[in-house]
Amino acid sequence: MATRYLFVKLICDRMLTNEQFHDALKNSVIRYFGELGVSRIDPRIMKFDDVSSTAIISCNRDATAELLSALALVTDYAETPVCMLVLRVSGTVKGATKHRK
User: Fold this and answer.
1) pLDDT tens-digit series, residues 12-39
2) What are the tens digits of pLDDT across the range 58-90?
3) What angle, rounded to 10 degrees, do the helices at 18-41 and 64-72 form?
4) Cα–Cα distance measured from residue 73 to residue 67, given in angstroms and rounded to the nearest whole number
5) The whole model's pTM is what?
6) Strand order of the sheet with strand 3-12?
7) Residue ranges of domains in the chain, CATH in brackets
8) What is the torsional sign of CA 88, 92, 39, 80?
9) Residue 38: enclosing H or E segment and its boundaries?
10) What DSSP state is assigned to residue 51?
């Protein structure tokens, strides 16, 4: 199955841990697409950096649009405002993290 990688920047008032980020992502996908959607989208956190508040998330290539919408719909976690900005989508991890010059 083909995979897409999303480079995501997390903007919030306090730093979230990897577990909290995972919960926010999972809850958003379940809320909007259900359990079947989670298995179809197959979101996985490949890397999370709590210092820079960035993450690399993989998903099924055919469900990239659904994951993008689930990330856009995350507005808070534990009563803290949160915004997840997708900075880049790529077919490889290296491409997702590559910086433009």
Assistant:
1) 988 888 999 999 999 999 999 999 999 9
2) 999 999 999 999 999 999 888 889 999 999 999
3) 140
4) 10
5) 0.88
6) 44-49, 54-60, 3-12, 80-90, 76-77
7) 3-90 (3.30.70.3250)
8) negative
9) helix 18-41
10) T
